[in-house]
Design brief:
77% helix; two-stranded antiparallel ribbon
Length: 136
């Protein structure tokens, strides 16, 4: 249980940092433009509702830490299953948001799906080192 909690904390922090870098550093101006009609704003900037933002990351990272090590047998499979989890979590969110919300643009859907794939691959790689399978 201690290793699981350690891995979950590391993956949570990793995905949280990746999310912040992607949305508030690398693509900040594009997200500001595309979220202008739908975001919650504080001091003129799109700002997430932090408790729900954290809860979403808790759920996504729990899924990754539970699923990826059980499904993967090699580093390549860890990365592949990380990509699958990225699509299932962030990708599903992005596609459903585009389907349900009039102002959720195709650009937002594509960028968040791309983020899910990238974050999932990085998470899978991290888990390959945190919880490697014994070699036979």
């Amino acid at each position: 249980m201690g290793k699981f909690i350690r891995n979950w904390v590391i993956v949570f922090v990793l995905q949280f940092i990746l999310t912040l870098l992607w949305h508030t550093v690398i693509f900040v101006s594009q997200y500001t433009t595309h979220l202008s009609g739908i975001a919650t704003y504080v001091d003129g900037k799109p700002t997430p509702l932090i408790p729900f933002f954290i809860l979403a990351h808790i759920i996504a990272t729990l899924g990754s830490v539970l699923y990826i090590p059980r499904a993967a047998n090699s580093k390549r499979e860890y990365v592949w299953h990380g990509v699958i989890m990225g699509i299932v979590t962030f990708g599903m969110f992005a596609i459903l948001s585009h389907a349900l919300f009039a102002n959720w643009t195709l650009w937002l859907m594509g960028m968040d799906l791309s983020f899910g794939i990238l974050a999932g691959a990085i998470t899978g790689l991290a888990l390959a080192y945190l919880q490697p399978k014994p070699q036979m």
